[in-house]
Amino acid sequence: MNGQNRKDVLPNITVDIVLKKDQKTGKLTRGIVKDILTKSGTHPHGIKVRLTDGQIGRVQVIHSN
Questions:
Q1: Each residue's pLDDT tens digit in the chain (65 positions)?
Q2: What is the longest distance spanned by two Cα atoms in the chain?
Q3: Are 16 and 63 in contact (CB under 8 A)?
Q4: CA 27 to chain CA centroid, nearest Å
Q5: Is the dihedral of CA 34, 39, 42, 44 positive or negative?
Q6: Residues 55, 1: Cα–Cα separation, whole Å
Q7: End-to-end CA distance of the chain
Q8: What is this structure's pTM?
Q9: Phi-psi category of 26—alpha, beta or left, where left has phi over 0 and alpha has psi -120 to 50?
Q10: Cβ(43)–Cβ(36) under 8 Å?
Q11: CA-CA distance, 57 to 47, in Å (whole number)?
């Protein structure tokens, strides 16, 4: 599942995000969603979230727990 739909991104799920500094390389960072920062229902580059460790990025992959 990609992270473009806000309804698919929920707190406490495991996701892979791309950090702002990694957008050129596409390096992904795995973590657990703490807060959903994007207000709109969809976003073409992924829903922006804050992970439990404080990192902020756009969701690229949603993992089923």
A1: 789 999 999 999 999 999 999 999 999 999 999 999 999 999 999 999 999 999 999 999 999 86
A2: 29
A3: yes
A4: 13
A5: negative
A6: 21
A7: 13
A8: 0.93
A9: left
A10: no
A11: 8
In the numeric block, which tokens belong to residue 42?
């969809």
Q: Which two tokens stand for residue 2?
A: 């990609």
Angular region, 46: left φ>0, alpha ψ -120 to 50, beta rest: left
- For 1-65, the DSSP string reads --S-BGGG--TT-EEEEEEGGGTTTT-EEEEEEEEE---SSB-TT--EEEETTS-EEEEEEE---
Burial class (CB in 10 A: 0-12, 13-18, 19+), 17: buried
